[in-house]
Amino acid sequence: MQQTKSSEQLDLATLTDRVRPSLQKLEAHRQAMRKSTLVRSGVFIGILLVAGIIAAVAAGHPAPVFMALFAAVILVIIYISKRQTKWADHAGSVLIPDIAGSHAEDIRYQPTADRALVKPFDALELLGQWNRVTVKHLVHGAYRGRRFEWALANLRHESSGSGKRNSSVTQIFYGLMFRVQTRTHFEPGLSIRPNFGWFSKTFGKRAIPTGNEAFDAVFLVSVDDDSQLDSTQLNQMLTPEWQQALLNLHEDAGTLPYEQTRLRAGMKYDSFYLALTMEEEGRKLGRIRTSKMRTFPDVGHLMAKESALESKLERIIEDVDTFRRIIDRLPDGGPATDNRS
Question: Quick check: bond before 297 cis, omega within 30?
């Protein structure tokens, strides 16, 4: 899909007006899905109840009716959940490329993708161990002369235990992953992780301090090979301009409980990588601070009577527009150099 960027950045009101026709079509689609979901759920519950009544008559007690009703409720909840995912994916496939194309050039969009975007984050050891991955809403194009790509990634670790009943799933990462072309060559690669304090410094990869107190309080920096860079060499690669850009992005994104950053970043060759979790600050209970996970794109619930698209559009635009804010923050950089010496 080829789209052309306007000469001036579109403000929120203009962009909202631009995508409003899509909202109307999406709402018509949602209402049709909602109606068919209600009808199918009703038919399904009816069939199971009839089966339960027949079994109850044959058994001479009402237990089968309650069992059938319980099974019907559980299965309908699962069915509606799958339909909700289908609705969100469809709405995202309409809105995301439309919004992204308003600021960038040569936009390409894929509703689903493989794990290619995730692999560099693994190589730089920016995320935990996972064995299940889903990548959706892959967008790539160009903005301000830089190639970029980003997508929604859902990384999980499934442990089978001693049997299927004992299996468990741990959420490793759910959020947006970005790769942006840089104008500086980074070798060795750098891993920039949240600074969780003493524990991460003691048990994590060797961290190299930059000497920038504000930066080192938020991030820990490591190399992706065995090279023994010192602080002076690191600052020749991760310049003060890059450090400030990362601090600005950290401030833009907001924090998790206890002021932890939502970002993980890395540099390798001609690419800048950034992972932005959709986890964010939740409620405060005295000194206890909780977090919550929000979905992307949040297009409202399929089964709601009234549409929530209009009210949620601003947040969707803000999320999609993250790629532009990232690129706007990055230093222009200089000629490609090898920073080992």
Answer: yes
